[in-house]
């Protein structure tokens, strides 16, 4: 059983930055890919970014390339999402994911 807990969401103005964190417990996640998804009101959940266990390039959705950066800290069993140059359309609930496990989500609202 894996528990994922996100934090770091909030209200930010367009052009601002936020850093999301996801802390995992219950299992060592060193050998699993970790990812971030988001779901905006009235829309389906979509993949934002993921990072594998290898040194391969992380994946980013086209909509966030160049603005978001994913990283992981295996020593802390955590994954992060640095979000810069935020846009109104980035407003959504952001979820951390590992295999079949999901966090409870953290709200990100970009508004002036």
Structure write-up:
- With 112 residues, the chain is mostly beta strands.
- Helix content is 0%, strand content 50%.
- Strands 2, 4, 5, 6, 9, 10 and 11 form a seven-stranded mixed β-sheet that branches.
- The model has no long low-confidence stretch (mean pLDDT 94).
Low-confidence stretches: none
Helix % is under 10%
Q: Which strand-content bin applies to the residues?
A: over 45%
Distance between the termini: 40 Å
Count of individual helical segments: 0
Count the beta strands: 11
Order of helices and strands: EEEEEEEEEEE
**What Rg is obtained from the alpha carbons, in whole angstroms?**
13 Å
Q: Judging from the principal axes of the Cα atoms, what is the shape? A: globular
State the major sheet: 7 strands, mixed
- Secondary-structure-based class equals mainly beta
Mean pLDDT: 94
Q: What would the keywords be for this entry?
A:
112 residues, mainly beta, seven-stranded mixed beta sheet
Short description:
This protein is an all-beta fold and 112 residues long. It has no helices and eleven strands. The strands form two sheets. Strands 2, 4, 5, 6, 9, 10 and 11 form a seven-stranded mixed sheet that branches.
């Amino acid at each position: 059983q894996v528990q994922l807990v996100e934090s770091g969401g909030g209200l930010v103005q367009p052009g601002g930055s936020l850093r999301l964190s996801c802390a995992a417990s219950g299992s060592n996640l060193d050998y699993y890919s970790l990812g971030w998804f988001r779901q905006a009101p009235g829309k389906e959940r979509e993949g934002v970014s993921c990072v594998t266990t290898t040194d391969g390039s992380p994946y980013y959705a086209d909509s966030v390339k160049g603005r978001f950066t994913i990283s992981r800290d295996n020593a802390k069993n955590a994954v992060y999402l640095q979000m810069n140059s935020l846009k109104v359309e980035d407003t959504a609930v952001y979820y951390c994911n590992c295999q079949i496990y999901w966090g409870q989500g953290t709200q990100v609202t970009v508004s002036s």
